[in-house]
From TrEMBL:
Gene3D superfamilies: 3.90.1200.10, Phosphorylase Kinase, domain 1 (3.30.200.20). Its EC number is 2.7.1.100. The keyword ATP-binding applies. Belongs to the methylthioribose kinase family. It comes from Sporosarcina newyorkensis. The keyword S-adenosyl-L-methionine does not apply. It comes from the Bacteria. It is an enzyme of class 2 (transferase). Homodimer. GO terms for molecular function: ATP binding; S-methyl-5-thioribose kinase activity. This is S-methyl-5-thioribose kinase. Residues 203-281 form the Aminoglycoside phosphotransferase domain. One of its GO terms (biological process) is methionine biosynthetic process.
Amino acid sequence: MSKFDEYFLMQESDVAEYVKEKITFFDKKALLEVKEIGDGNLNYVYRIKETETNKSIIIKQAGTVARISEDIHLSTNRIKIEFEVLSMYRKYAPEFGPDLYGYDAVMNCFAMEDLSEFRILRDGLIHYQIYPHLADHMSTFIVDTLLPTTDVFMEHKEKKEQVKTFINPELCEISEELVYTEPFTDHNKRNELFGPIQAWLSQQIYEDQLLRTEAAKLKFAFMNNAQALIHGDLHTGSIFVTPDQTKVIDPEFAFYGPIGYDVGNLIANLVFAHVRAVVAGEEAYVEWSKRTIASFIDQFQKKFIVKWNDGAIDRLAKEDGFKNHYLHTVMEDTAGICGLEIIRRIVGLAKVKDIVGIEEPEAREKAEKICVLFAKDCIMKRASLQTGDQYIGLLQEKMEEI
């Protein structure tokens, strides 16, 4: 009988033993080094390296309590969803997903490629690194992984079965609370407002009844629009990069939801990097990040239409008027969700280093004000935000207001 025949949360010493017993990656006599490297909010991530050859692998395990807060208790089933979605990435967009080496339903973990030669995109952006293929890669990834999971491309009964398979109520509840509810109400008193502008933030968000109403509309759209199998947490901390390659990880929040949720989340996090560069006076980087945001938005739409034309199987979906309507609603969702993601990262529980890492208080104050004013317009004017130039124009407008 093995100690791994019953679930427990592993420590580093357990992981080395586990890998030798359960994963056919290392020689049984190999000397292994194990280090816990997870910096996310939910799971535990271990890098296992063979000292002699430097071969390495990653084990990711789900715990029953979130790392971000002991108040958040979770089913470990999320790790199964994550593994299955990563497997889907290997099917639809193999160049953008890590290699996978096995899933363990007892220990609630899986083994995957070590991406240590890559860099977390957020870290690269914070240090003003330029990734020339980012807009191209991420627009391709989103289109190639999301459209094939919609009713436009799938037989409808099969799609409905997939909706049941990937229902993810506990992780969805986290998004519903941390993204859509708490930033506008703070009913659990978990929001953290930057001291020097606390009163301003409160006025801009808590006291804006029209904004709160639109947030409510977006929340219920999120809960009821089973459009595609989305990543559910597609920010710059979930993307690994080199100058020439891009890999997407961490889809434990995946479920059938609005396509705009993934698109809007990524735009919001690129905006954080852009605004950080603005207040730091990094002019060359400001120009690159501006072009990248606009290019990502426009390339996404162009590739969306091309793939739709090539692969739509629903007869009415092939109507030009419907295709354009569908994309317009995706972009409307995108703008609203971009605004929600920005606001929740400014005032909510889970901050981003792009903003909180700004050391000069006046610069951070400026950055937060730009972000919040931009985010509010993304939410309130979401039906009219459709192109990359419109996003960049709105950003410039808010910078001039501060």
